[in-house]
């Protein structure tokens, strides 16, 4: 059995006069940018933050990764970088999704061990859970069955992070852990209608409908339920995990089950935030997808029972405002 996470003050904090150097891989993406935004207003004097992008080197290559660790000498690592893609990419490139993610993760974890990094926090995903499962899902169910065949290359590579967090703790005493977030949205997202996730795709679609004076059409009936976490909330909780949560066992970062909302509610919130006055159509000829994928956040609530998540309405308003202000330069 792994030791339970402690609630005592950080054991891995830098001694007086020394700095913690926190390196964020994948620092230019949705979550990396959110962490940057959060840290800018919540930075501690003894912390220096480094945000990596692909320009810093190829994390699939061991020598590149070694050079990055030698250059920045991190004491803590938040590992967001991964090869990701949509359904069709995952189906067509299972080998590449497995191999490239395994290479990235191995290079990061071994460098953290060799360089005596005090804390490594890696990101997992709810899509790596067993395909056949009961709901709500929690951290203990990760390895209870095979993932959906469509993304098994990606899923098994990500699952191995959890396996190795425990192995590194047992064999080398490393303080490695992982986070399982639910559906993330917010500023700096990918707002592609074809390849983006639900909320950013709807925001872009509604923007174009308003601009072109056409109906705002949503694929499906709008009845499926989802839990959405605003990226700045996830950033705050990720920094809390880095500073305060010390167990190799993963922790789910999600809004409460009661905050699960139908896609229809999300679409109407987007229309309201965009001040869209036109017709809203739900195209029931299009498939709905899975009805619900509820995740349980009881572990998180055992540590932070009073944490207040950003409401879906407020989060969507902030995301819409950011998208409109950054339309020319954002990913879309």
Please count the beta strands (DSSP E, at least 2 residues each).
12
Largest sheet: 6 strands, parallel
Mean pLDDT score: 92
How many DSSP helices? 10
Order of helices and strands: EHEHEHHEHEEHEEEHEEHEHH
Sequence of strands across the biggest β-sheet: 2-1-3-4-5-10
Roughly how many Å apart are the termini?
Answer: 45 Å
What helical percentage do the residues reach?
25-40%
Instruction: Briefly note the structural class of the backbone.
Output: alpha/beta
Estimated radius of gyration:
20 Å
Percentage beta strand: 5-15%
Give the CA-based shape.
Answer: globular
Low-confidence stretches: 1-10
Walkthrough of the structure:
The chain is of the alpha/beta class. The chain contains ten helices and twelve strands. The chain has helices at 30-42, 62-72, 87-92, 94-114, 152-172, 198-212, 231-244, 263-273, 298-303, 312-325, and strands at 20-25, 47-51, 76-79, 119-123, 176-181, 183-185, 216-219, 225-226, 228-230, 251-253, 261-262, 280-283. A six-stranded parallel beta sheet has the order 2-1-3-4-5-10, with helices on both faces. A two-stranded parallel sheet has the order 6-9. Helix 8 packs across helix 10 (312-325). The radius of gyration is 20 Å and the shape is globular. Mean pLDDT is 92; it is low at 1-10.
């Amino acid at each position: 059995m792994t030791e339970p996470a402690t609630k005592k003050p950080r054991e891995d904090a830098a001694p007086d006069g020394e700095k913690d150097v926190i390196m964020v891989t994948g620092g230019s993406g949705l979550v990396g940018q959110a962490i940057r935004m959060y840290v800018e207003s919540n930075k501690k004097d003894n912390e220096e933050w480094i945000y990596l992008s692909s320009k810093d080197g190829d994390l699939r290559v061991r020598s590149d990764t070694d050079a990055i660790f030698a250059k920045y000498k991190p004491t803590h690592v938040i590992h967001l970088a991964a090869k990701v893609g949509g359904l069709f990419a995952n189906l067509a490139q299972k080998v590449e999704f497995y191999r490239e993610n395994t290479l990235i993760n191995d290079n990061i974890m071994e460098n953290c061990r060799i360089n005596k990094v005090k804390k490594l926090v890696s990101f997992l995903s709810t899509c790596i859970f067993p395909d056949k499962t009961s709901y709500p899902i929690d951290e203990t169910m990760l390895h209870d069955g095979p993932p959906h065949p469509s993304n098994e290359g990606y899923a098994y590579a990500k699952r191995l992070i959890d396996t190795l967090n425990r192995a590194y703790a047992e064999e080398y005493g490393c303080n490695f852990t992982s986070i399982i977030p639910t559906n993330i949205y917010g500023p700096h997202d990918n707002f592609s209608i074809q390849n983006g996730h639900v909320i950013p795709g709807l925001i872009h679609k509604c923007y174009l409908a308003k601009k072109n004076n056409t109906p705002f059409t949503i694929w499906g009936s709008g009845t499926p339920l989802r839990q959405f976490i605003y990226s700045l909330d996830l950033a705050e909780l990720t920094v809390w995990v880095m500073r305060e949560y010390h167990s190799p066992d993963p922790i789910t970062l999600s809004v409460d089950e009661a905050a699960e909302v139908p896609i229809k509610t999300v679409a109407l919130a987007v229309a309201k935030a965009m001040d869209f006055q036109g017709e809203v159509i739900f195209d029931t000829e299009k498939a709905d997808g899975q009805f619900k994928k509820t995740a349980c956040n009881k572990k998180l609530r055992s540590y932070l029972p009073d944490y207040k998540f950003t409401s879906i309405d407020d989060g969507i308003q902030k995301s819409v405002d950011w998208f409109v202000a950054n339309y020319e330069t954002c990913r879309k």
